[in-house]
Structure formats: structure tokens, C-alpha cells
Prior knowledge:
Blueprint: H1 6-25, E1 31-42, E2 50-64, E3 68-78, E4 82-84, E5 87-89, E6 92-103, E7 108-119, E8 123-133, E9 138-146, E10 150-160
Antiparallel strand pairs: 1-2, 1-10, 2-3, 3-6, 4-5, 6-7, 7-8, 8-9, 9-10
Amino acid sequence: MIRRKPLSVLLTALCCILPFALPATAPASGLYAGAGGIYTDFDDERNDSRFGYRLYAGYDFIRIPALFRLGLEGGYTRTGTFEGDDGSERYNNRDAGLQGTITTLPLINFHGRAGYEWGDSEGGMFALGASVGVFPLLRVRAEYQNRNDFDAGMLSLELRLP
């Protein structure tokens, strides 16, 4: 008679059950939206860093539970007030791009995004970041953004629809 230790029995059971449980925990729709504060850094002598905000939404069209997501994300960014050539100004930009996310267990996801922005500043942009789940549908997301005229850091709340 073979006697197994309780821990090895538990680990074996988890390894057998976990692949079937993961698809049920993944967001089914792929839709998400978020809002957050953005801290911009202008690279010139007249302007220091400023605070603004960003609104965004996206859709993951490829979803492999507990591994990877690929989708499109678009957003609107309004920077803090800075000193322009003819007085006080703000940047109002829209952006769209492709986002890839590596999903990890249990809570942390890492993502990269590349796209194009237009509005007061036009050009390519990219972002790198991570998010942490705080409730089943709510995540806290932080990212570094390299935009055409400035660099930025963003901290936001993101809601993923089931």
C-alpha cells in the first residue's frame, strides 16, 4: 500500500483541476475602460512637469486565459497647463494602438502598447506598464508613456466587463 503525503495529494488535485477552472475566471467580453491621472514631463527649459488626465477604452480580440491578450486601445489625453509660445496651453490628444498583455497568476498583468496620437501633437507613441487586480472586475494600472512631444506616467482605475 502506497501512502501519499497530504500536500502531494493536494498539489496533484490542483494541477488536474486548475486548467478547467481558468477559462471560467477570465473576462468573457474582452471590453474594458479606464480613467486616470497623467504626469507629463516636457523636455524644455520653460516647462516643468504637469498633471492632467487620460480616458481610455479597449477590446481584447485574442484572449488566451492566464497567458496572453491582444487587442486595440484608444484614448483621450489632456495634459496639465504649460507655458506655450503665446501663453498658457494644454495638449488635447487622441490615440489608438495595439496592446499586448501577458497575464500572470494571480493578480499582476504586464502590457505594452504601440500606436499613433493626433491632436495638438501628432506622431508615434508607445507605453509599457502593469496592472494589479483589486476586485474581480477592477484593476489599478500604472504605465510609462513615450509620446511625440513629452513623456508621461499614468496611474488609473480600469474596469473590465465580464
